[in-house]
What does this fold into?
Amino acid sequence: MTVAAARDYKIAVIPGDGIGLEVVPQGIRLLDAATERFGFNCTWHNFDWSCQTYRRTGRRMPEAGIVPSANLNPEREFSSMFEPVRGSAPDIPGQGIANPIGQIWSGAMMLRHLGEAEAADAVEQGVANVLANSKVRTPDFGGKSTTTDLGEAVASEVLATHKQNA
It folds into this structure.
């Protein structure tokens, strides 16, 4: 008997304001039922981006650019675009302190779209390892590292994981 490869999906959830707070949980309930019936998995990542967040913090979304996004052409007839979703940071260009995680994560999404799931997993695990096991942080995360420091740390993790598995 052949076991099918796991179909795991990471889903960003942004209920926003108003009725979104009521209807989004019901949409998730329906999708959870579908995952149970049809044998795939969705991992829900909730983002509190709303007017309520703005009133509480002065921002609708975090300043750090750590969220990937994509405009996909699933038929692959036209180009797809991958980029991070981020808040505005007009005060930091040229200083080398921008957080590159959103861009790196968008690259992982692109790899997955291209069918390179193992490479995408390695990039995502590299980000997770750096954030969990090192002190490499850009100022938006309370650190003193540069954009390059963080990018190099993640790239080193991806390569280190490869060398361990070789």
Notes: The chain has two domains: 8-61, 63-166. The chain is about 45% helix and 15% strand. Residues 63-166 form one domain. The beta strands are 8-13, 41-46, 67-71, 81-85.
